[in-house]
Amino acid sequence: MKQQIIATILLLTVLIGTVGVVEADTEITSCQIISDPGNYRLTSDIFNSTATNCIEITADDVNLDCQGHTIDGNGTGWCGVYISRASETDSNITIKNCTVQNWTSSNVYIHNSNDNTLEDIKSLTSYTGIRLRYTKRNNITNVESSGNFQDGFYLYATYNAHLVNLSASRNDVGICFSYAAYNWLDDSNFMNNSREDMEVSTNDEYWCPNYLSNVTGSGGRPIGYYYNTSHIENLDLSELILCDADNSVISNVTVHGNSALKNNGIDVLLTDNATFLDISSSYNEHGLTFKYSNNNNLSRIVAGNNRWNGIKIENSDSNILTDSVLNSNENGSGLYLYTSSHNNISNITANQNNQNFNYGIYFQYGSGSNTVSDSVFKGNSQGIHLVQNCSYNNFTNIDASSNGFSGIYMGSDSFGSSDSNIFDNMNANLNGWYGIYMGGVSSNTIKNSYIQNNYYHGIYLTGASLGENGSNSVYNNIFINDRNLHLSDDITHATSLNTTNTSGTNILGGTYMGGNYWSNSSGNGYSDTCTDSDGDGFCDNEYDLSGGAAEAIDRLPLAFRYMAGDTHCSSCAECNLKIRFAAPGSTVYLDTDISEQYGDCILIQRNSTILDCQNKTIGGDGDTYGTGIYVDAFHSTPLDNITIRNCVVSGFLNGIKLYGSATNKVTNSSISNANTSCNRNNGVKLEYSDSITMEDVVSNSNYQGSGIYASHLNSSNLTNITLNLNENNGLCIYHCDQNTMKNIEASSSNFYGFYWYHSDSNDVEGATTNSNGWDGIYYTNSDSNNFSNVISKDNGNSGIYGSYCDYNRIMNTTADSNERYGIRFYNSISNMITNSTMENNSLYGIYLRYDRLNNIYNNLFNNTNNVYLYPASYVNVWNTTPT
Fold it and tell me: What number of other Cβ atoms are within 10 A of residue 166's Cβ?
C-alpha cells in the first residue's frame, strides 16, 4: 500500500513539473524578425518606424497578439507585417488585435504561406492594406482595411480563403480578386471606394468561382457576383460582376454605387451568349465593361454620366448592341471598342461625351470588321474616332454632327492605320473643326453623305498613302462648307472624288451617279453656279481641288437642281436637304416627330422657303445647345420670305431662331401656329429681322430665358401670342421699333411679363400681363410707345413701370392688385395715362419719382394710397379740358 502511495506522489510530481515548464508569451516592443515558433505579444505602440519590414515572421506556428497596439511606418518602409516563403508552406500563423498603417507596399503581406489567420485587425493608409499572394486556406475575420491608396484587400492566386465580416472604405478598390478562386466572402461591406468596391481580374475561366453571401457595396445595396448560368432580374445593385456566366439572362437591373464618387459599374468577364435587357448603369465609375466575352446580346442599355466609358468592349467579338443611350460620360467615350471585331451596333445615341477630349464611339488597336448603323454621335469632342489599325468597319446612317473637333476622325500611328472603312449615308455637319479628318489612312470610302457647315473644312486629309485597296474614295456627297476640302503638302497621290458615271439615283435625286455636290454657306459654290448644258445632272467641266503635289479632281461634279413640287422629310438632315433644293414657293412638309436631337436641327439659308411641320414635334435632348428651327442669315446672305408654320419645338437652347446682322437681315417672313414651349433659353429668338409676322404662337415654360426674345426687330406684327410661365420674361425686346403687338398674354413669369429696352414707337393693343414676379410691363429708355387695353394685375412689384421713358401713352388699362404699385414712372416726361383703373394696389395706385409734364386724367384710383409724388414741385397734369 505504501509503495502505491509513493508511486502516485512521484507521478503527480512529474506531472506538476511538466506543467511548470510551459513557456510564457514573448513580449516585443519594437520591429523585429520572429524566427522561432511560439506566442508573441506586442506590449507598446510602434510609431514612425524606419524599418523595411517591421514584423517579419520567418517561423511557422506563430501567434502574434498586438493587444490593440499600432504598428506604424514613416511612409518609407515596405510592410508592417511580412510573411513570405520561398515555396508553398503550411505556416499556421495567427495575427490579431493589431492596427497597422502607413507602409508603402502593404500593411500585412502573406506570400506562399497557407493556413494563416488574421483576426480583429485595422489596416489603414498604405498602398495596399492586406495583400495575399499564392496562398491557400487562410481565415480573415473582423478586419477593416480603409484609406489605402490602392486596394483594401488584394488576393492574387489565392484559394479557399474564408473571409468573414470584412470592411473596406476610402480605398481605390475595396477588395480585388486577381486570379483568385474558390474563396468564401460572407457578411462584409465594401463602401465608398473611389473606383470599385469589388474588382475581379482574370482572363481564364478557372479563376471565376468565388462565393459571396450578404456582401454590401456603396449605397448599402448588394454586390452581385455570378460565375455560372444565372437569371438575374429586377434588382437594384451597388455593383454587378459576371465571370464565366455563359447563357445568363440579365434584365431590368439597375446598378449605381456612390453617385458623388462615381464608383462601381457592371463588369462582364469570360461570359458568352448572355442577354442584357433594360439595364441602367449611370453615375458610376463605368457603365458596362466586357472583357473576353463574345456573342452577347445587349438591348435598351442606359449608361450615362459615368466617370469613364458608357460601354467598353475589350477583346470581345460578335456581340450585338442595340437601342441604347450612352450620353455624357466624363473621361471616356460613349462606346469604346478595344481589340474587338465583328460586333454589330445599331440605334445607339452617344452624345456629349466631351469633358476631356472624348468620343461618341472610339475604335482602338485592331478593332475591325464591326458594323455600326442608325446611330447618333453628337456633342462629343469627336463623334467617331478610329486609330491604330481599325479597318474594314462599316458605318451606315450615322449622325456625327455638332462635335467639338471632328465628326469622324481616322488616324494612324506606329501601331497601324485605319484603312478600308466604309462610311455611307453620314451626317457630319456643324462640327467645331472638320466634318471628317483623315490622317495617314487609305482605301476608305465616304459616300451618300452630308458634310455641311463645319467650321474649318468639310474633309481634312493629311499624310494619306495608297493602301491595298487604293486611295480614299469620296463620292455622291453634299459638301456645303466655306472650305470643303483640304489636302496637306505631304499627300503625294490622288484622292478619288467620283465614281464612274452609272445609272442610279444620286444624292440630289438625279438619275446618274458620279461625283459630289460642292457648295458653300452663301450658295454660290462650284455646283451652285456651274453650267449643265445637257441636263445630265453633272457640271460640264470637272472641278479641280488639287493641292500641293496631290491630285484631287471631281470629274463628275453634281450640278444644282431644284426638286420638283412639294417635298416631305422625316429627320433633321433630310429636311435640311429638301429645304436647300426646294423650288421657290414649294413647301417642305415634316411628316414625323423628331426627338432627342442634339444641336441644331433644321437650318434654313435659302429665300422663299416654306416649312410646314404639320403639327409634328421637333424635340431636342433638353441640354444647353442648339436650335430647333434656325433661320441663319448671319452666316450666309440676307434672307427673305421665309415661312414657318404648324411647328411644335421644344427641348433646345432656342426653339425657333431668326438670326441676322446689320447687313444680313431676315425680312418679310412669318411664324404661325407654332408652339415653342419648354426650351432651355428662349422659345423664339429674333435678331436683326424686319417685317416679321408672328401669329398664333404659344411659348410657355422656357427654362432660363423668355417666351420671345427680340433684338433689332422692326416693323413687325405679333398677334395672338401666349408667353406664360417663363423663367425670365414673357416678351423681352432690345432696340425694337415700330412693331405692332395684339392680343399678347405674358403672365406668371419669374421676372417680367414684358421687358423692353431702348425700344420706340411700338403699339400694344390688348395684352394681359398678370402674376409676374416683378412687373407686368417694364420698359426703360423707350419712347413713343402706345399701350391700350392692357390688364396687368397681381404682379410682384408694379403693373406697369416706365424708367427714363418719354411720350408713351397708356390707355384703357387695368393695373390692379399689384404688390406695390399700379403704375410707376421714374425720370420720365410727357407720358399720358387715361381711361385706366388702378385699384387695390398695396402701396400706391400711381408712383411718380422725378417725373414731370405727364398727362394723367379720366382714371379711377381706388387704393389706400392713390398717388405718390416726389418731388412735389414737379408739375404733372391731372385733368384735361372739359369736353
Answer: 24
How far apart CA 305 and CA 300 sit, in angstroms, is: 16
* Exposed e or buried b per residue across 636-667, where buried means at least 16 C-beta atoms within 10 angstroms of its C-beta: beebbbbbbbbbbbbbbbbbbbbbbeeebbbb
Residue 324 in contact with residue 349, Cβ under 8 Å? Answer: yes
In whole angstroms, give the CA distance from residue 573 to residue 589.
13
Q: Is 276 in contact with 302 (CB distance < 8 Å)?
A: no
Residue 472 lies in a domain: yes
Cell for 503?
445609272
Q: Smallest Cα–Cα separation from 366: which of 385, 390, 392, 344?
A: 390
How many alpha carbons fall within 13 Å on the CB side of residue 354? 18
All residues at 6 or more sequence positions from 611 whose CB lies less than 8 Å from its CB, including other chains: 575, 579, 587, 588, 590, 602, 604, 629, 643, 644, 645, 647
Q: How far apart are CA 385 and CA 502, in angstroms?
A: 32
d(CA 552, CA 496): 7
Taken in order 547, 552, 556, 559, the sign of the CA dihedral is negative
Q: Is residue 87 part of a domain?
A: yes
Is residue 418 a contact partner of residue 395, using CB atoms and an 8 Å limit?
Answer: no
d(CA 319, CA 298) in angstroms, rounded, equals 8
Whole-number Å distance between alpha carbons of 507 and 200: 51
Sequence letter at residue 46? I
What residue type is 460 in one-letter code?
Y
Total domain count, the chain = 2
Position 550 in a domain: yes
According to the 3-state scheme, what is the secondary structure of 477-511?
Answer: CEEECCCCEEECCCCCCCCECCCCCEECCCCCCCC
Q: Which of 561, 583, 602 is the last residue of a domain?
A: 561
Rg of the Cα atoms in the chain: 38
Across the strands, what pairs with 856? 833
CA atoms of 154 and 818, how far apart (whole Å): 69
Nearest to 129 by CA among 114, 115, 111, 109: 109
Containing structural domain, residue 100: 33-125
What are all long-range contacts of 847-854, with beta carbons under 8 Å and residues at least 24 apart? 847/798, 847/820, 847/821, 847/823, 848/824, 848/874, 848/876, 849/824, 849/825, 850/826, 850/874, 851/825, 851/826, 851/827, 851/876, 852/876, 853/829, 853/877, 854/825, 854/828, 854/829, 854/830
What is the full DSSP assignment across 246-310?
A: TT-EEEEEEE---TTTT---EEEES--S-EEEEEEE-SSS-SEEEES--S-EEEEEE--S-SS-S
Tell me which H or E stretch contains 141.
Answer: strand 139-146
Q: Is residue 171 part of a domain?
A: no
Can you tell me the distance from the alpha carbon of 828 to that of 851, in angstroms, rounded to the nearest whole number? 5
User: Please, what are the averages of pLDDT over each run of 10 residues along the chain (883 residues)?
Assistant: 44 42 81 98 98 98 98 97 98 98 98 98 98 98 98 98 98 98 98 98 98 98 98 98 98 97 98 98 98 98 97 98 96 97 97 85 98 96 96 97 95 90 95 94 94 94 65 94 88 82 92 95 91 95 82 92 90 89 93 90 92 96 85 88 97 95 94 95 96 97 94 97 96 98 98 98 98 98 98 98 98 98 97 98 97 96 97 91 70
| Residue count of the chain | 883
DSSP string, 615-655: T-EEEE-SSS--EEEEEE-TTSS-EE--EEES-EEESSSEE
CA distances, 811 to each of 556, 761, 789, 846 (Å): 67, 15, 7, 14
- Please, are residues 127 and 102 in contact by the beta-carbon 8 Å criterion? no
Following CA atoms 109, 114, 116, 122 in sequence, which dihedral angle do they give, to the nearest 10 degrees? 30
- Reduce the DSSP state of residue 14 to 3 states and report it: helix
Q: Could you say which of 503, 538, 561 is where a domain stops? A: 561
CA distances from 588 to 480, 521, 577, 866 (A): 20, 20, 10, 57
